[in-house]
Structure formats: structure tokens, C-alpha cells
Description:
Number of strands: 11
Low-confidence stretches: none
Structural class: alpha/beta
Order of helices and strands: EEHEHEHEHEHHEHEEHHEEH
CATH architecture: Alpha-Beta Barrel
Number of helices: 10
Amino acid sequence: MAVFQNRFLKESITSRNYFRYSLFLRSLFGENVGKVSVDGGFTCPNRDGKKGVGGCIYCDVYGSGTEKKIEIERQIEDQLEKRKNKYNKFLLYFQSFSNTYDAPERLLKKYEIIKKYDEFVGLIIGTRADCIDEEKLRIIDSFTDEYFVQIEYGLQTLDEKIRKWSNRCETLKDFEDAIFLTKIFPKIFIGTHIILGLPGEKNNYHLRLADYLNKLKIDGVKIHNLYIPKTSRLAKYYEEKTFGIISMDEFVELTVQFLKTLSNNIVIMRIGGTTSNQNLIAPKWALDKNKILVSVQHQIRQ
């Protein structure tokens, strides 16, 4: 058994596994909490030409998001109706593309949609580190008096060569500057996304990555495997056999070692990632999320 605690919880959590997001939310709200993911109609500076075009090579045409283009209210209401029998409380997640990449006044108008629905207890905003500034953070922080507020920055990798290969068009300094700026607003939960198994990672890279996040005192992390959507630029490179993908067993081993190095204060918001079966080229094992989680949970107890 292990004991987990962070700055948002009054009491510690005991678990046989890792600091799971579901346990964190249950402790925070006193019950299980659902998530409503929406496409807010944003784009990305790595797509519109400000930083680059085409996006990161592993990102699909939907911005690794919801694939929905209907109005936000309709997206929300459809999901609430389908899931109201399972949950009483929900988090509103602005997921697709970079959800702070707009003028502050337009951001505020979109985020304020949350106030129309009593079911929401939290707001989650996914974005890039180079799409944030103090004015935008003040807007986001203004929701913390009424809601749990979480911002997620894509990190993916520490390696600048891999960042360049992936067409990230964003530096590690951009990421660090965004983290330090966000820490000015202590009520905002800071999460990040990483990918384990990127081509070019050196031995023990995943352990250095865990140490890096420990030093930054990140609140939460999503651990992704590399997968190939048909609609991504990466699909062409994969078909040309310019790189390979690690096996599920290798991903599980990397993940377990990463988790054992990571601070017990950091919440694990996700393990594994994929797209729809129809849009996925490889690896097919990414579709079996339950098997991945069971394997990680089994090995981390050993």
C-alpha cells in the first residue's frame, strides 16, 4: 500500500496502485465525477501558420479531441443526457486543439458556458504552453471560487531534437515559463501530457522525465503511448518505416518505472491513449485500455 497526498486534498489517500485521478476526484467531491469533453471551436498556432502548419506530426485532424463541430451547448446537453444516470457531478473539459488560443474576451465568453449547467463542479482547459499569458490566467483563475479548475499543458518530451522531429514548434523554455506563470495562481491545478516511447529516446529517459516533473511540482500527468492516427502526418513516416513503435509490454514497463520514480503528490490523470478503431493505424494494443491498466497495476505492486 502507498499513501498519496497533494495540495488540493485535506486528507491523504491510500492505494495499492498509483495516485489515480478517479480517487483524487472522489476524495475532492465525495463521489465519482464524470467528464464532458467539448470542441470549443479553437485552432492552434502550429496549424494556422503563426508557429507552423499541419500541427504536431502525431496530432490528428481533430486536434486529438472530440471530433465534434456542433455548438458547445448541444455537445454538453447530449453528453449530460447520456450519462446522467451514472454521475451527478461533471467536469467540463475544453479538449480539442489549443483552448486558450483566442482573445481573452472570447475565451471568457466560452468558459462561462459552464455557469449554465448546475451539474458542473469543475473546468478543465487543455492548451499549449505558448498560448498562455497572465491576462488569460486571471480569467481562468476567476472560476476557482466556484469550480475546481485544471489547466493541461502539452509537454510530450524533454528532448529538443525529438520536439523538432515532431514539429512541436514550441521550446522547453516555453513550457517551463508557462508552469512558473501558472503557479502565481495557486488555486489552478496544473497538469501536463507526456508520451513514452517516442523514437530517439535514450536509456532511462523516462526516469529523467519523472525527475523533471518532480522538480517542477506538477499537480498531475497524463501518460500517453505513441499511436498513429490515419489522419496524422506521422502516418506517412510510419508507412515508410522510418521508425518503429514499442510493444505493450515495453510501454507498461516504462510506465511502471516512471510511476515508481514520480512523486506521490502527482496525480495520474491517464495511462495510455488512442484514437477510434477506424482512425488507428498502430499499435492495435492501444485499443485495449483495460489490459494496459491491469498490467500496470499488477506490475507496480511487485
